[in-house]
Amino acid sequence: MSDLDLERGGGFGGKRGRQLSFRRSRSPVQRHLTSQALELPDRVALPDGELQSRDRLIHLIVGDDQEIKRSLGDSCNWYTRYLELNFRHHWHLLRPALKGLNNESHQPQTGELVVVYDFIITVARLFKTKENLALVDIVDELDNQDLLKPQLDEERAIPNQIVFAALGWLSMLYQAVPHPQANKLEVTKSSTSFSGCQSPLVTRKYKYFKQGFDFIDQPLHCLLGNYGDLIPRTHQVQNSDAGLIGGHLVEYIIAQSVCFYTMQDLADLKIEWVTSLALHLELDSGKKTLKLFQFPSFCRLMHVERKANILSRLLNDHAARCCEDVRTPDVPTEDFFQEILLSYRLIFGQDDRSWRLFSRMVQTQGNYRGHTSLELSWDCDPMLLILCGRSSTTEGARQIYDEIDANPPKSHYDPNIEFPFFGKRLLELQRFINLHQPQNIRSLLHDRRDVSVWYTVWSSQVLIAFASCTIILMFLSLAFQVWQVQLAREQLRQGQVL
Q: N or C: which terminal CB in the chain sees fewer CB atoms within 10 Å?
């Protein structure tokens, strides 16, 4: 298990009703993994009601029949800590909106997380089951269940804003800002560099970062559509640059062309870490940056059967709106999250040079940052360090890939079969990198995109080195022979004198 273990029973149980709690493990783990867990106030024990509410939410997300252990248990562990961190950041919106919360408190008091978890569970249940759900439907249902406080005229925006934030926590398609403008639904517009610096988000996926309440009575896919292209869809790729598959010419994704080492060494691409699933693998060729989703634990949590997946309803509603097919769409939601996890293996885990480079960069940046709070840093998810900073064949990474039924790694991938959601973005990345050629001998010797060329270069270098050694040996032999001749002449001259 990761550095965060579970107090009662040692982990998430497969049976419903088990109470869950968290504590820091004292077992030896990797130093960096231990330091990166989301930092929350230490509590010896949570009230039973809060434990039960937390348990209910997790089982609602992963399904009652799902056995929660190993990497899934670690993911549930991380996600509930992530939620509670966001509860604290949005407490100024939660306390005036929900009944049972103290209007004067600045942080959750004992027992108050039960109220917040009941709120999240209600939102999650509607999000999971109701067709063409609108934000106002959720607010009305919360009001019908008597979960909301009476609101003054100037406070009527608060329930809409906190429900919008909760949908972001449950979907990770966006992240709501903790302090939105009055009567606005606002999402974050920043990304994080490897060094931990926040920078303004430049993206083609977002058209706007805030909007009013004009569309809160429209289905959620319409509301999110006003921000931009946030809801995932599959993309069929056809290209005449590669082999024939199923009657169509398909361009392959070459692992060595899109690995982290190649993009750094040849294309000088930088990684930007983002909290939105919609931005994963988006390339900005002008800024030379590649965006990567920073919370793989969420993807592992959501890799459940599509009928039980909390995002399936939204994705299917969106597909039905976009598709002209009269049949009811069935978007493979679990495949979407599997592709994100496999993209970490493609870029980092299956290439030794790439995961080692990532590890060195993390260590360097960790030393540079020192011991500051890491609760909002891009590497606060321990699973990210396992998938990107270790070989995919190590025990921890292999366990994760085995649990999601991943196929063995390959040197090339068909985007239509193995990356239907992200194949188009991976091919865009590959084409950009292929425009770059080595600029020095070192880059040339490490460029493995074309294995035959790489072997040819190395063979020629070996031959050159062998020839150089032969020439040096010849010169040494010649010098030795000259020295022998000179020595013989000296001996002959001395003999004549005697």
A: C
